C-alpha cells in the first residue's frame, strides 16, 4: 500500500531564504510524482509533474527532483517570498500507473517579510 | 479554457439532510476523481468515474455516499443523511496526460 510522508510538517523562514521540502513514498514503482500548492480555503494548484524517467523539473524559482530508487522527492524553492506562503502537497499514484493519487499531509510554509 | 469547476463552494446542511456536490471536468477530460480532505488530514481518494461508469469506488464509504457522472451534465457526489463527521472539503479532479487538475472544492459543514 502506497504511503506518502512529508517533512517537515511546518516551516517558517525569513524572506529571501532558499528552502527544501521533502517527500518520501513507500512504493517506488511509480510513473510520476506531482507537487501541488494549496492556499487556505482554496483548491490545489499543480506546480510540477515529474515523470519516472526524469530526475528533475524546473518552473521559475521551483525545482523538484525525483529519486525513485530511494523513494524520495524534494521541492526546492529559491529566494522565497511572502507570496510563497501556503501548504505544499506531494502526491504519487496509488500503484504503478494508477491515476488515483495518494497524498502526503503537506508542509505548511510561512515566509516572513 | 475553464478549469475544473465545482459548486457550490460552500454548503451548510443540518444533520440528516442530503448534500449534493457538483463537478465539471476540464474541457476535453472525460474522467473525474473525488477526494475528501478532513480537518488536519491529507486528501483521501474516494471515487473515480468516467462518463456513465464508475471505475473505482474503493475509497467511498459503503453507506450514504454515492457518485455518478451522467452522459450529459456534471458529476455529482451525493451524501445522504449527513452527519457531523461528513464536514470536510470535497475536491474534484480531472486528468489529461498524467497531470491532475483540481477544482476549488466544496466545503461542507454539517450543523
Report the total helices of chain B: 0
DSSP strand tally of chain A: 11
Backbone structural class of chain B: mainly beta
Could you tell me the radius of gyration of chain A in angstroms?
Answer: 13 Å
Largest interface: A-B, 24 and 25 residues
Radius of gyration of chain B: 13 Å
Content of β-strand of chain B:
over 45%
Largest sheet of chain A: 6 strands, mixed
Shape descriptor of chain A: globular
Descriptive terms for the model:
heterodimer, A: 113 residues, mainly beta, six-stranded mixed β-sheet, five-stranded antiparallel β-sheet, 0% helix, globular, B: 111 residues, seven-stranded mixed β-sheet, four-stranded antiparallel β-sheet, 11 strands, 51% strand
Task: Characterize the structure shown.
The complex is a heterodimer of chains A (113) and B (111). Helices cover 0% and strands 57% of the residues of chain A. By secondary structure, chain A is an all-beta fold. In chain A, the strands form 2 sheets. In chain A, strands 2, 4, 5, 9, 10 and 11 form a 6-stranded mixed β-sheet that branches. A 5-stranded antiparallel β-sheet of chain A has the order 1-3-8-7-6, with no helix packed on it. Chain A starts with a strand and ends with a strand. In chain A, 34% of the residues are buried. The model of chain A has no long low-confidence stretch (mean pLDDT 93). By secondary structure, chain B is mainly β. Chain B is 0% helix and 51% strand. Chain B has no helices and 11 strands. In chain B, strands 2, 4, 5, 6, 9, 10 and 11 form a 7-stranded mixed β-sheet that branches. Chain B has a 4-stranded antiparallel β-sheet with strand order 1-3-8-7, with no helix packed on it. The N and C termini of chain B lie far apart (36 Å). The model of chain B has no long low-confidence stretch (mean pLDDT 93). Classes of the chains: A mainly beta (113), B mainly beta (111). Chain A binds chain B through residues 4, 31-32, 34, 36, 41-46, 49, 51, 89, 91, 94, 99-106, and chain B through 4, 6, 31, 33, 35, 41-45, 48, 56, 59, 91, 93, 95, 98-105, 107.
Amino acid at each position: 500500500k502506497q504511503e506518502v510522508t512529508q517533512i517537515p510538517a511546518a516551516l517558517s523562514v525569513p524572506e529571501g531564504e532558499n528552502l527544501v521540502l521533502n517527500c518520501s513514498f513507500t512504493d517506488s514503482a511509480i510513473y510520476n510524482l506531482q507537487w501541488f500548492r494549496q492556499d487556505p480555503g482554496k483548491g490545489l494548484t499543480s506546480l510540477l509533474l515529474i515523470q519516472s524517467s526524469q530526475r528533475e523539473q524546473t518552473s521559475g524559482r521551483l525545482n523538484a527532483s525525483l529519486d525513485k530508487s530511494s523513494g524520495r522527492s524534494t521541492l526546492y524553492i529559491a529566494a522565497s517570498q511572502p507570496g510563497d506562503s501556503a501548504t505544499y502537497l506531494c502526491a504519487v499514484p496509488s500503484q504503478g500507473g494508477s491515476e488515483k493519487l495518494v497524498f502526503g499531509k503537506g508542509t505548511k510554509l510561512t515566509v516572513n517579510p | 479554457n475553464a478549469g475544473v469547476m465545482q459548486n457550490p463552494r460552500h454548503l451548510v446542511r443540518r444533520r440528516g439532510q442530503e448534500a449534493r456536490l457538483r463537478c465539471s471536468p476540464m474541457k476535453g477530460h472525460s474522467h473525474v476523481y473525488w477526494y475528501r480532505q478532513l480537518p488536519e488530514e491529507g486528501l483521501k481518494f474516494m471515487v473515480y468515474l468516467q462518463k456513465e461508469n464508475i471505475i473505482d469506488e474503493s475509497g467511498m464509504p459503503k453507506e450514504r455516499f454515492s457518485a455518478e457522472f451522467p452522459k450529459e451534465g456534471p458529476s455529482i457526489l451525493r451524501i445522504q443523511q449527513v452527519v457531523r463527521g461528513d464536514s470536510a472539503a470535497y475536491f474534484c479532479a480531472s486528468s489529461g496526460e498524467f497531470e491532475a487538475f483540481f477544482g476549488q472544492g466544496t466545503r461542507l459543514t454539517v450543523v
